[in-house]
Write a structure and sequence with these properties.
By secondary structure, the protein is an alpha/beta fold. It has a domain at 74-197: P-loop containing nucleotide triphosphate hydrolases (Rossmann fold, 3-Layer(aba) Sandwich). Helix content is 43%, strand content 8%. The protein has 10 helices and 4 strands. The chain has helices at residues 8-20, 26-32, 40-51, 57-63, 80-87, 91-97, 113-122, 124-127, 142-151, 161-169, and strands at 106-109, 132-135, 156-159, 180-183. The chain has a 4-stranded parallel sheet with strand order 2-3-1-4, with helices on both faces. β2 (132-135), α9 (142-151) and β3 (156-159) form a beta-alpha-beta unit. The longest helix has 13 residues, at 8-20. It is globular, with a radius of gyration of 24 Å. The N and C termini lie far apart (69 Å). Pfam families: CMS1 (PF14617).
Length: 201
C-alpha cells in the first residue's frame, strides 16, 4: 500500500520566508538616518500643511511667522540647560519681574509626560529659584492644575500640547506674559517619532 504524506513542512517553509520578507518600518529608516536639528521653516511648513485645506489664502498669510519670532534652534550641541541659558541670558530678571498668576514666562512643550519629567530634571542648572509647574495629564487632574495656577505663581510650565490646549481653552492658563515657547522638536520617542510626527499633536 502507498503511504500518504501531508505537505506540512513546505507550508512551514513558506511561513518563515514570509516572516523574513517583512516590510520596512519608518523607525528602521529613521534609525539609520543622522539626527537633524529643527529649523523655523519646519514649523512654518507644518502649519501650512495642517491648516492649508481649511483656511483661506489671507488666513494662511496670517499664520506666517516672521523670522524675528524665532530664537536660534538647538543645533544638537547643547544640553537643555545650556540651550536655555543661551537663548534667555536675562532669565533672573524676567523671573523677578513676573508677578502674574495663571501664567508662565516660559512654556516648554513635549510629546509625553515622561519626557516632560526628564526635561524638568535636566533644567536644574538653569532655573534658579523659579517655580516649575507640570502641565500634563499623567496622574494629575486638570482641576488640580487649574487650582495651582490660580493660587500660585509659576515661572516655567512644562507639559504636553493636549493638556496645555485644554488649560488655555478653559482660561486656566493665560499666555499674555509668556515670553518663550520652547518646542521639544528634536527628541524622538521609542518609535523614533518626533513630537510633530504624532497625528494627535
Amino acid at each position: 500500500p502507498m503511504e500518504c504524506f501531508l505537505s506540512q513542512p513546505e507550508e512551514k517553509q513558506e511561513c518563515t520566508m514570509k516572516a523574513k520578507r517583512r516590510k520596512k518600518k519608518i523607525s528602521d529608516v529613521l534609525q539609520k538616518s543622522a539626527p537633524k536639528p529643527g529649523v523655523p521653516a519646519d514649523l512654518q511648513n507644518l502649519l501650512t500643511q495642517h491648516f492649508g485645506e481649511n483656511r483661506s489664502v489671507i488666513e494662511i498669510e496670517e499664520l506666517q511667522l516672521s523670522d524675528s519670532c524665532f530664537l536660534p534652534a538647538n543645533d544638537l550641541t547643547h544640553s537643555f540647560s545650556s540651550y536655555l541659558r543661551e537663548i534667555c541670558p536675562k532669565w533672573a530678571k524676567l523671573r523677578r519681574i513676573h508677578k502674574e498668576k495663571k501664567s508662565v514666562v516660559m512654556l516648554v512643550l513635549c510629546s509625553s509626560a515622561l519626557r516632560s519629567l526628564e526635561l524638568i530634571k535636566s533644567m536644574t542648572a538653569f532655573k534658579g529659584d523659579c517655580r516649575v509647574i507640570k502641565l500634563f495629564a499623567k496622574h494629575i487632574k486638570i482641576k488640580e492644575q487649574m487650582n495651582m495656577l490660580e493660587k500660585g505663581l509659576f515661572h516655567v510650565g512644562v507639559g504636553t500640547p493636549g493638556r496645555v490646549k485644554a488649560l488655555v481653552e478653559q482660561d486656566a492658563l493665560c499666555l499674555n506674559s509668556t515670553k518663550y515657547v520652547i518646542l521639544d522638536w528634536n527628541w524622538r520617542d521609542q518609535k523614533l517619532r518626533r513630537m510633530m510626527d504624532i497625528p494627535e499633536v
